[in-house]
Amino acid sequence: MAQKKNKLGRSLHATVPEALYQTLWQRLTNSNPQT
């Protein structure tokens, strides 16, 4: 949803490429919480 509204790009004042969103999503889904 943030990608569709370009919230990350606006907050960074830069264009965010599609590949960056994919990388971020993969890291979020693959990360393990450290306890």
Helices and strands in order, then pairings?
Elements: H1 2-5, H2 7-12, H3 18-30
Classify the secondary structure makeup into a structural class: mainly alpha
Radius of gyration, rounded? 12 Å
- In terms of per-residue confidence, which ranges show pLDDT below 50 for 5 or more consecutive residues? none
Following the backbone from N to C, one meets helices and strands in this order, namely HHH
How far is the first residue's CA from the last residue's CA?
A: 29 Å
The percent range for helix content is 55-70%
Strand content: under 5%
Q: How is the biggest beta sheet arranged? A: none
Overall 3D shape: elongated
- Arithmetic mean of pLDDT: 75
Number of E-state strands: 0
Number of helices: 3
Explained architecture:
With 35 residues, the protein is an all-alpha fold. The protein is built from 3 helices and no strands. It has helices at residues 2-5, 7-12, 18-30. The termini are far apart. The mean pLDDT is 75.
Keywords:
mainly alpha; 35 residues; elongated; single chain
Compact description:
With 35 residues, this protein is mainly alpha-helical. It has 3 helices and no strands.
